Every structure is written in structure tokens, then in C-alpha cells.
Amino acid sequence: MIYQGNAITVVRGDDDIATLTFDLQDESVNKLSSAVVTELDEAVKALQGESGLAGLLLTSAKEAFIVGADITEFQAMFGKGGDFLESMLVRVHGIFNAIEDLPFPTVTAINGLALGGGCEVLLTTDFRVMSESAQIGLPETKLGILPGWGGCVRLPRLIGADNAVEWIAGGTQNRADVALKMGAVDAVVPAEQLEAAARDILARAIAGELDYRARRAEKQQPLKLGPIEQMMAFETAKGYVAGKAGPHYPAPVEAIKVIQKGAGEERARAQAIESKAFVKLAMGEVAFNLVGLFMNDQVVKKKGARYEKQARPVKQAAVLGAGIMGGGIAYQSASKGTPILMKDIKDDAIELGLKEARKLFAKQVERGKLTTEKMAERLTNIRPTLAYGDFGNVDLVVEAVVENPKVKEAVLAEVEAEVSEQTILTSNTSTISITRLAQNLKRPENFCGMHFFNPVHRMPLVEVIRGEQTSDAAVAATVAYARAMGKTPIVVNDCPGFLVNRVLFPYFGGFSLLMEQGADFARVDKVMEKFGWPMGPAYLLDVVGLDTAVHAGEVMAEGFPERMGSLGGGAKGEGDSQSAIQMMFENDRLGQKNAKGFYAYEEDRRGKPKKVRDEAAIELVKGVARESREFSDEEIIARMMVPLCLEAVRCLEDGIVGSPAEADMALIYGIGFPPFRGGALRYIDAMGVDAFVALADDLAKELGALYAPTDKLREMAAAGERFYDTRNQAPAQA
Known about the structure:
With 734 residues, the chain is of the alpha/beta class. Strand 17, helix 19 (472-484) and strand 18 form a beta-alpha-beta unit. Helix 13 (285-310) packs across helix 19 (472-484) and helix 27 (633-653) crosses helix 30 (689-703). The longest helix has 26 residues, at 285-310. The protein is globular and about 85 Å long.
């Protein structure tokens, strides 16, 4: 035994080959925490001090090789400042360079995922062998940073600048066959042959058959690129990646710049360039917020996994109501392997649902994600029916009929009589109280909400809504089914609009007040899109549908009359005045569904709706304006964001959602809250709770209860508290 640690062991074999094994105790995966990096340093020093070694094999005792650095440490590290980060990077470069400079050949056996820091480890060795099911990649740009442990230096020298730009800027996970084709690895073999293949390469290198020194030198020398090649590899890529990433995500373009600047440099200088760029990104708010999102996502996944452990598995599902929504739900269930019955009372609705499912499967075939044989096989998981004949064996039913409480109550009572006493009933409702819908059920404990977002196949969130009588078993089964469908379920308690719509509609309320005071809705859209939303409020209303928005607004107005009363009637409660949203609806401008709303819609070349300016809509909105005012971008942002953020606070205080992490992830997954801003509650933290309360108070003086902070939020501001642990907050900006 050359070295023994908690995560790393180094053993010398009879053939004088050392085997360094990553096996982090008490963890299911290997990750490079600061403690593991310290062990790696000690292990490498032990190797350097061992005489007579002929070679080194890096392996993993886990299913994955190394999944990356320990992201749970990132925010605390970033908070220690640039000097600390710089010294940390210099230290890790020293460890990795020491592996690369060992006086004998080295090889890595990659048996599973090797991502981020794990990928950077294997780039230090002279050779790499990969199992057929393994994947490698450098996903750091998705966290707002870039590979900082040599990835931007070594990978381009292995696979070429253009391929490295694609891997690093895209943050992709790459299959073994792709890695072999690119030259990132030297061989791909079945898992059971992995160690033997790695040892064979090592033996050939020791015997001089493979020149490991030449391979090593290639990684340490400047890239052999002329000026024209550099222009083609980097300048074109920067323009393309900048357009795709957008202005709020600097890491992908910064990574290209690092590769470009380091291309003509030796290893040490290129690594210094990489380190400087890493520190610059790590000290920014985008990286802090994206790392925070990753942490929040882990919280949500862990809660979902806990529910899943308690659940009776859903082996057969059913959806009531075909059409676009029912077809989307059926497709999602069938595509992930859970058979589903799709019931409606009309043949044409059934055909519409099947058409939707077939269209979505066909797109998967077009993209190369499915073969036609697999498509046919998965389509058989959907069984259309006009009767309840086979519902006795259904484990969970999703009711997805029209958003009308009387219709839903009747359908739910009807299906309850046809299923077993253990069957879980769920309603795909966006606003109607689950407790209300349960009133006529004989087994209300078996009923909860299961709110999908449209389009079902794209939107990751499912709200699982607990009614007053909903049992833990019903929630657990619904969470488990949502996870089996590839969705992210978040459990919330019952209230008008639940979580996402309850938070969204004050945002629309802020928009209506802006319209009332003469703001230009197209300009509001541009400001909010520049802020980071995928679409502005007027455009979003057109996509949602003005009829849907009016109906949901009425539910909100009834549930929260003090601050949302204007959403269901006249502005500020005056019955003789309309909001811009109601004006559109009453003039049969429903949005994209009838090609006219705040904008008019034409089909683009791909047959998708394209918005265009519409003078008729502009005149209608002018009709609701009581005054004409100019608003700065900052005023528009405050008027839109404050009510949304305040409602998220209220949902947390009211116990509608269990944690800030779940609240923020629901808004990001459900309505496209700008991810780089971290969520509504993290947005308040970034501003400072005291500054946010002061801004809200200032707006509330003119605009009323929609903008008024809660008493508890005022207490938080006075006490200097935050929604997230103060030890994991962004560093002060220079």
C-alpha cells in the first residue's frame, strides 16, 4: 500500500504498476471535494516518493468515475474572494501537473460518468480507455463558470480547438463513441474488459511500443494553429455562441476566449490565463445564482426521491380528456414507459389526442432520438377508449377535462365509481381548489392535484397539490408518477392558483396598472425580455390565452380580493373600468389561439405563430389608459417584479410551498423566471431584503396593496435576515 485515504487508495502491484482508486467512503458517487483534492495531493506525493514504479493506472470503485467537483462547496469558496480562488487554482494545477509529469506512463480507466473536475483529472494522464456506457464532458459553463483545473488547456490540444470549443462552450456530456472519434480517448471497450484494456495500453507504453512522452508533450505545447485557422476556430465560434447563449450568460464566450488566448502558450502560461478567467466568472452574480439553482434542484430532487420511496408504483395510468393536453400527457407517460389509457366521450377528441402523441413521437424520430420501431413500440403504450371497461386495473388517473369546476366534479365522481379503492385520482387543474373538487368524492384521501404546464413534453414542472383531505400516500404516488414521466414534481398546498399561477398573476396585475397609466405594452415586453424573461407579459398573455387569463384572474380576485381584486373586474375595483386584459378578451382577441391578442400572429416558414404589430390592439389598449406617462426601464422592472416577488414571499409564509428552494425552482421551471437571476426569493436576497422592502413601500403608496410588504418581511429586513443561508451568499461586487 503506497497510500490510504478516505477517498483514495494507491496500491503497488507485483508488476510495479501502481493503481490509484477513487472510492469516496459513505457516498454513492466520487466527487472532488476540497478534502478529496487534499488526498489526491498526498497520494501524488507518495507516488513521487516511491522508487522503481513502471506505470500508473487511475480507476474508480464506484459506478461513475468522478462526477465532478463538490458543487456544495462552491458558494462558500466564491465568498472567500478572488485571492483565495486564485491560490486554490494554482494548488490544483500543481497537483494535476504533477500527475502529468510523473516519470512513467499513465492511463485512466473511465468506467462511468467523468464530468467537470473528473474529466480534468483524466486529461492529465497519457492515455484513456473508456467503457462503452461511459460519458465524459466539461459542463462548467452551465454553472456560469469555465473549466478551471486545466480543461481549457488540455482538451483543445487533445481533440482540436474547434471540437473543444463545442464541448466546453456547450457543456455537453459526450458518449464513448463520440469521445473516441474526437481523440479524447484511445480505446472504447465493454465494461468487463475495461481494466484489462487499460493495463494492456500501459504495458505497451512501458515496453516502448507506445510513445507516452510524445503524447504528453503534445498536451503541454502550444496549439499548432495558423492565423487563418485561429480566425475560423475562434472568431466565428464566439459570434455563434454569443448569439445562442445570450447577453446574460458570459461563461461560454469567456471559455472560447480562454482557449484562444492560451492556444499559443506553453502549459503554465495557458493555465494562468484559464485561472484568471475562472476567478472573474466565479466572482460574478450569474455564477453564484446558477450554482444556487443547482443546489436548489438537488433539494427538490431529494424531496421527490423521499416521496418516491414511500409510494406504491404506478404500473398503469389513465388520462380523462383527450385533445392536445390529454395527448401530451399520454405521450409523456408512454414515452417514459408507463402504459396509459386515454379516455374521452368523443371519437374526434380521441383522434386529436392520438394525433398529438404521434406528432411528438415523430419529432423524436426526426431528431434521431428514436427509431421508427421504438416509436411504434411506445405508441402501443397508449390505449384509446370511449368506455371505462379497463379502469379497474388503473393505479392513477389524471383528469384533464375542461377547466370548469362542475364538469370536473362530475367526471371525477364518475371515474371514482369505476376504479379500485386504491386508485389515486388527480386533477390537472391550473386554478380550481383541490379541496373543493374533493367535496363529492367518497375517497377524498385518494385525490390530489397534478398540474402540468403547457406544452407538456417541454415544461419540466408538475405541481402536486395537496387538498385538505389528501393522504400522504396519494401525494407520494403522484410524485412518483411525475418522476417516472421525467418531470420535476414540487408538492404545494391548496389555495387559489396554487403556487405558480398565484405568483404569476400579481405580475400580470403590475402589467395592467402600467397599461392603465399609459405605458406602451410593446416597450414593457422589450424591457422584461432584456431583463431575462423568455417573453414579455403581453406576449406571454397571448401565448397563455386571454380567455384563460381572464378566467384565472377571476379566481385570484375572489381568493385575494384586497390585492388582486382588479384582476377579476375593473381596475382598482372600479366596475366601470376595464383592464387591458379584459379589453382584449371582450373584443374576441384571445391571443395565439385565434391569431389576435396584444399582437397579431402570422405563420412563419416553419408554420409557427410569429407576432407582428397590430394597430387595432394598440388602439384598444389606449382606451384603458387614464393618463399618459413615460416610465424608465428601472421603473418598469420594479412595477413588474415587486408584486411577483411579494407573492412568492406570501406563498412561503402561508405554507403553500415548503422552502425557498422549491419556490424558486417552481418559478424557473414553470414560467421561465430568468435562471441567471436565481429565482424570486434569491432576487430579493441579491437586492437586499431591506432595499426590497423600501422599494415596495415606495410603490405601495401610489399603487396599493399589491405592492405592500408583509409584516414578516419587514421583520426580516429589520433583522438583516435573508431567505438563503448567509454563508452561501454572493461575494460583494467590486
